[in-house]
Each structure stands twice: as C-alpha cells, then as structure tokens.
Amino acid sequence: MAKNIQAIRGMNDVLPAQSPVWQYLEGTVKDVLAGYGYDEIRMPILEQTALFKRSIGEVTDIVEKEMYTFEDRNGDSLTLRPEGTASCVRACEEHGLLYNQTQRLWYTGPMFRHERPQKGRYRQFFQIGVETFGMATPDIDAEVILMTARLWQFLGLSDSVTLQLNTLGSNEARARYRDALVEFLSERKDQLDEDSLRRLETNPLRVLDSKDPQTQAVLVGAPELHDYLDDESREHFATLRDILDSAGVKYEINQRLVRGLDYYCKTVFEWVTDKLGAQGTVCAGGRYDGLVEQLGGKPTPAVGFAMGVERLILLLETLELIPAEVLQTIDVYVCGVGVGADKAALLLSDRIRGEHPWLRVQTHCGGGSFKSQMKKADKSGAHFALLLGESEIADGNVTVKDMRGGADQQTLAQADVSAWLAEHVN
Ligand code: HAM
C-alpha cells in the first residue's frame, strides 16, 4: 500500500478543535488594533528574494540559513516571506502610501523560516504584525508598546510577560560602537565560541546575543552600547521611557538586545515570557528609520512589531486563560426523528436563524435514532437541543431540552421558539 503523505516538518495543521482559540486571539488583537485606528494591509506570501536580502541583511541567520528560496518557471528567484516588514514597506512604496502621509497598518498571515522545529518554533508560523510610517517622534514608539500592553491586559497575560527595552542609537553611533566591540573581542578571540567568532567577522553586534557561558563571561567587560549613543537617540529614548513610566508600563533595559534583523535603529523591544521554555519571545519589534530609503523610497521614519500567534496560543493554553465560552461554538442543536422530521428540522433551524441571526444553530443531518441524535447534541456543546418527533410536527410544536441540566424539558409552539431561545441563550 502507498505510504500516506504527511505535512512538511515544522508546518502545522490547525485542527477544528483549535480554531476557536485562534479566532479568539485574532479577534481580540483586531479589536485592540481597531481601538487605536490601525488599518489592515494584505501582502502576497511570495516576494522577490532581493527584497529580503536587502532589508533583513545578507549576513543575518534568516537570510543566510533560513529562507525558502527557489527559482520559479521563469527563472526568477522568489522567497516565501520570512517576515512581513519588508513586504509591507515594498507594498506601501509601490502604491504611494508613504507620500506625504502617515500610516498605521497591521497584517496577519504565515511566515516561513527553515529553522530547527521545536516547541514554539516552526517552519511555517503565523505573525500578527504592525507597521507605522512617517512619524519620527517617540510618541509613536510609545503608542505601539502601549497597544501591546493593552492587548496583554485583554488576554489576561499582563503578569506573564515582561518588556525588554533597548536603544541601538543612530547608524553612525552603532558603527562607532561596532568598531569598539570588534577591537575588544578581537583581543579575546581565544575565549569566544565558534558561532561568535563567525559573527565577529560578519555581524559583530550579534555576538551580544550569544548564549555560550564563556562568551557571556567575556562580554561582562565589553564596551557598553549606551556609552556610544548620539544625543538625539539618547533624548528619544528618555522621552519614550518617560511616557512608559507615566503610563505604568514596566520594562527592563537590556543593552544586549540587538535583534536578529539588520534594519533597526533607536528603539528595539521584546515581550518575553518564562513560561514557554527556550522560545519565550512572544512579540518583538522596534524602529527602522532607514529601511524605506534602503529599499528605494524617500527617507521615512518607521516603527513596528510582530507577535508570534502560535507562541501566544501556547501561552494562553499553558496558563489556562481561554474563556470557556470561546470553546463553545453552538447554542442550539436541532434533532428530528420520524417521517418528515429531517425536513422539519432544517426548516425550523432556518426559521430561527432568520429571526435571530446571532444564534448559532446546528441541524442534525444523517438520520439516526433519538438516542444517537441526543448523543450528538450533547457532544456539540449546545446549550439547548430542540426535538422534533412526529407528534410535535403534527401539532406545530417543538420540545426544548436544556443540555446543561438546568431547566425541565418543555414543549413550545414552533412559532414561539426563536423568541424563547433569544431570551434564554446567554
Ligand atoms: P522577529 O523577532 O523575527 O521579528 O519575529 C517576531 C515574532 O515572531 C517573534 O517574537 C516570535 O514570537 C515569532 N516567531 C519568529 N520566528 C518564529 C518561528 N520560527 N516559529 C514561531 N514563531 C516565530 C520580525 O519578524 C519583525 N518583522 C518584527 C517587526 C515588525 N519589526 C518591525 N516591524
């Protein structure tokens, strides 16, 4: 027998039982974003490879090792997007959305990185991302951070995530710091791990990210980024901190936070949790004032972030923070047993939906005994089952059964049942 074909490693199906949780998270995020006046943008999943090389950086892990890149039938090099920022900038430029105006945008969808799959790290994963354009002042940095803090509050996650904050300064300041760091580390090459030695040549700031204990020990005495900051970045950061302090948003300054993508300047941040093991960053972003110009546009300040949907869902599940009503997707289950009952059940269901469109009504299809239909009604999670037997049909009635056991079974006229349900389904 032929072997069953399976999904690609690191690419997950979201099964029907999980979908309500996804919808709950996505719905809550959308409500928060709407509350701040952000508009949705949808970009293609495939882009020209050059877009990501030019924006994320040639010597980043993503571009060097993780992109799904292939030649299409025309011989063009295409890449499945590893993130949304570059695509969003491209789309905005292409459609003139950055000309003399500000933008507050969000998107959601799958991203692709050929990483080693583990809990919270996948090869196809979903992000909900936010990008803002045309605002150079720290108020917008603060707004996007406050928006995420509000989302954690809505989801009940405020006590489970912490904000790590840093500033990378201007490009010039960072270049000066980079020189100092390279000089310092070059004198201590013998104490660095292999990965850090490689990064020292290609992307030295990323050495700060090393998890190797010996490299960490070397870094204790390394030059500090904040000693090299330019005045403007320093002031920008101070204003941002002042707003966050006044809004009561707590954060930790982490001078080692440099991010794995090259386009950032000034503010960078990550929301992290210690409840998910190694993949604890649930949301990350920062300012990227140089990227629009780098991709061929006019200099345009920009700030954004993206959150990992799977990681947030894992966190909500781990902490048992999914409201019970999210998992209940049906209010009323309509059963019919006997001659003409299938048709009567369908017609009654449709009548109820017509009169109260918000009621979620599932009609039993496929026949079966009264007992087996009641079993299905129970499994559906519905609050009420409606029963149509031959006598009910003959009398124009319906029997209502409270599946949660609260009230006695009762018989109502079919004409009255919608109004009754609307009153009793909470
Ligand atoms: P990033 O840090 O590469 O930033 O990804 C953002 C978030 O996506 C991470 O914090 C994590 O929650 C999730 N994520 C990343 N890789 C994986 C993976 N392999 N499996 C599961 N989840 C993952 C960016 O992508 C930037 N574009 C964010 C940004 C937007 N900066 C400015 N604007």
UniProtKB/TrEMBL annotation:
Question: Mind telling me which PROSITE patterns this protein's record contains?
Answer: AA_TRNA_LIGASE_II (PS50862)
Keyword Cell membrane assigned to the entry: answer is no
Alphabetical UniProt keywords: Aminoacyl-tRNA synthetase, ATP-binding, Cytoplasm, Ligase, Nucleotide-binding, Protein biosynthesis
Compartment list: Cytoplasm
Where the record annotates domain Aminoacyl-transfer RNA synthetases class-II family profile, the positions are: 1-316
Q: Which reaction does it catalyse?
A: tRNA(His) + L-histidine + ATP = L-histidyl-tRNA(His) + AMP + diphosphate + H(+)
Instruction: Tell me if Ligase is a UniProt keyword of this record.
Output: yes
Q: According to the UniProt entry, what is the EC number of this protein?
A: 6.1.1.21
Q: Quick one: a GO biological-process term for this protein?
A: histidyl-tRNA aminoacylation
| SUPFAM superfamilies noted in UniProt | Class II aaRS ABD-related, Class II aaRS and biotin synthetases
Listed under GO cellular component are:
cytoplasm
Q: Recorded GO terms, molecular function?
A: ATP binding; histidine-tRNA ligase activity
Q: What class of enzyme is it?
A: ligase
Residues the record lists as binding L-histidine: E83, G84, T85, R113, Q127, E131, R259, Y263, Y264
What family does the Swiss-Prot or TrEMBL record give for this protein? Answer: Belongs to the class-II aminoacyl-tRNA synthetase family.
UniProt subunit comment: Homodimer.
The protein depicted here goes by the name Histidine--tRNA ligase
Give the species.
Thalassolituus oleivorans MIL-1
What gene, per UniProt, encodes this protein? hisS
